[in-house]
Every structure is written in C-alpha cells, then in structure tokens.
Description:
The chain is 47% helix and 15% strand. The protein is α/β, with parallel strands linked by helices. The protein has two domains: 4-149, Rossmann fold (3-Layer(aba) Sandwich), CATH 3.40.50; 154-264 and 288-393, Rna Polymerase Sigma Factor, Chain: A, CATH 1.10.1740. The strands form two sheets. The chain has a seven-stranded parallel β-sheet with strand order 4-3-2-1-5-6-7, with helices on both faces. The chain has a five-stranded mixed β-sheet with strand order 11-10-8-9-12, covered by helices on one side. The N and C termini lie far apart (63 Å). Residues 10-16, 39-40, 61, 101-103, 106, 124-127, 151, 205-206, 209, 267 line the site of nicotinamide-adenine-dinucleotide (NAD).
Amino acid sequence: MQRRRITVFGATGSIGENTIDLLTRQGGADSYDVVALSGGRNVKRLAEQAIALKADLAVTAFDDCLDDLRAALAGSGVEAAAGQAALIEAAARPADWIMSAIVGFAGLAPGLKALEHGTTLALANKESLVAAGPLLLGAAAKHGARVLPVDSEHSAVFQALVGEDMAAVERVIITASGGAFRDWPIEDLARATPEQASSHPNWAMGQRITIDSASMFNKGMELIETKEYFGIAPSKIEALVHPESLIHAMVGYRDGAIMAHVGPHDMRHAIGYALNWPERAALPVERLDLAKIGQMTFRPACETRWPALRIAREVMEAGGYAGAAFNAGKEAALDAFLAREIGFTQMSDVVAAVLDRLSADAGLMKSDLSLEKVLHVDHLAREEAARIVRSLQH
Ligand code: NAD
Ligand code: MG
C-alpha cells in the first residue's frame, strides 16, 4: 500500500495528542509521510511531535510563538511557520488525510481549504460544522472529498449506519454524560464556577469542551452536527442522558430495531476508526467487561436544566446562518464565563439573546451560505454577545 500523507491540525491538544499516539503506534514516520502538524502556544511539544514524526512542516497558530518554534526545531530540518495564513497554506499542501482538531471557529478556514483540495478530512472540530455545515459539505461534494466524523457520537452513528438505507432511519439518539452538574440541584447552577465546570465526571478533554459538556452546549452543538453530517430532519434527532457514557449513539430504524454503538471512554476509538476507515484496525482501547459494569442507565435530557438543548433545536429548525450565530454567541459567552463576567446559567441567556437580535435581520440570516458571510455573522454575533454581557453586568 502507498504511504499515506498525513496532516494534523491541533496536534498538541487532547484530540491531537490521541491522534499522534495512534500514528506513532501504527508505525509513525516509518508508515506515514507526515506533511504538517499545527499547534498553539505549546511550541516545545509541537516541535517534539514534528521531529519524532519527521514532519515537513510545523505551524504555530500565533505569530509571537514563531521564534520559539524555530529555536525548538533548530537543526531538525522541519520547516517552521506561524499564523492563520500559514495554517491555510499547510491545509493546501497535498495530503491524503487531514485531522481537524483545532478548538473553536478557527478550525473552519483550514478545514474548508483541505476539502477544496479534495483531501479526506477527519473532523473533530465540531464548531466548523455547526457554524458552516452546508459550506463544508458542499465543498466536499464539489471537490470529491470526504468528511469523516471524529466526535464520538457521530462516529458511532456513522458506524451504526454501515450497510443501512437512510430511508429506513426513523430516529437518531445521541447520548450525553450530563456533564459536571448532572446531579446538582437546578437552583445551584447559577453559582457554579469555571473550576467546577472544568471537571468532567467521566473523562479528560480540553477545558472548553468540558465546560460545554456541563452546560450541554456541547450536546446542543452535536444535535446540529447530526443534522448536518447525516442530513437527518431535526424532529428525528434526540439527546438522551446516559451517565455511564458507554453507548455513544443509537440509530433507530423503521422496523423498531435500534443499533447502539457501545465502547469505552477513549477518543482513540473514534479517531482510529476515521484514520483506518473503511477498515477496522486493531486499536489500543480498553475491552469492556459488561458483566463487571453491570448496568447502564438513562434519563431524559431536560431542557429546563439545560436550555442549550432547546436553543440548539431552534437553530436546527432555522438553518441558514443561525448555526454561525449560535456558535459565535456560545464561544463569546464561554469566554465571558471564564473571565467571570457572567455566571454559568447566563451563558444560555447570552446565546438566546444573540440569536434573537441577529434573527431580526431575516435577509441576512436566510441567505445562501458563503465563507465571507459566515465570518461576517460570526463577527456580528461576537459584538452582540459582548454588548449583552456588558448589559448583564450592570
Ligand atoms: P484542546 O484545547 O485540547 O486542543 C486544541 C488544539 O487547537 C491545540 O493544539 C491548540 O494549540 C490549538 N489551538 C487553540 N487555539 C487555536 C487557534 N486560535 N488557532 C489554531 N489552533 C488553535 O481541544 P480538544 O479537546 O482537543 O478539542 C479539539 C476539537 O475537537 C474541538 O472542536 C472539540 O470540540 C472537539 N472534540 C474534542 C473531544 C475530546 O475528547 N477532547 C471530543 C469530541 C470533539
Ligand atoms: Mg462528542
């Protein structure tokens, strides 16, 4: 088999490190031609990865980190670059498989560029799909590129759909752990701190997605992701709280059967599935002992406790630029919560208010999707969110 050319965006993050781990276990530089790796401020780690995998290029997202990256790579032969334009240039370099594991809206432009070059995109960066799903999938269709889901729920749905007819799908159920506060009394949520929201009951992830799990904005984004990836009507998509997080998603068919994907809490399963697709390769994940686990439990995903779910449902119904406004409003609200400018439950108030205000301009929100306009709506939504945050502080 020909050696595959691989690029990993966000290599130093939680998904990125798991991807590097799998690439290394599957032979590293002996098996793959690593084209580019990208990271943020942790240039020491980025340089280590790039040297170990003999990458052609290492890119830090931040210009002020370039000198440190160059120093860390001195004598290695790995090229160093920095900034948004360098990320996009890296995405345009010929590759067979690109992992998109940047956190946030910043992942959109490199992912889109990769698809425009016909490259298979393993997509962990859910924000880009929420903000601009039709744009990404439209680019993939136009350029004959594939998007492979990496978010565990969507990888699970993807796997439960193998060999099935989409016309026979009646419902898709994605599960939620319930996050840090699933057992808290609702009235205590308003006082939850960023530290409390940053600890996940079942596993370790980047800080932003961990807080999004506590607020259920993560699940809200995943509802929208489900609609975009699989083209499923919003009315057929459900969220279900499953504290053990062993079933990642289920697909219900018109004959009443439900195909559930069961697996350990280890993102290397979903990453490995996308890396080796359409084959199933042996992966270094725990084998579940179900007799020892004993039971799995389920609870309804309550929209009073987690208004993010209700807002996401409205966004799915609205379509157009609502996803871009939702994502930007959510990112800005999360920044404000982290900066202690607003409380935990005010994040959903901010997002709902941003959507309300932007929806007033129906001409803007319903028009055809373009990258330029997505960037514009993203910008407007962040400005609006900042205004709303200020008003809440008074
Ligand atoms: P993380 O914070 O651990 O890592 C993010 C990566 O992006 C790092 O390499 C960082 O240096 C880089 N980065 C940060 N800001 C950047 C910017 N402005 N421009 C370019 N690069 C930047 O995040 P993570 O938990 O690995 O999540 C990555 C993506 O995968 C997110 O979209 C997240 O929602 C999604 N995801 C994560 C998990 C998980 O288990 N961690 C599961 C499903 C989906
Ligand atoms: Mg997920």
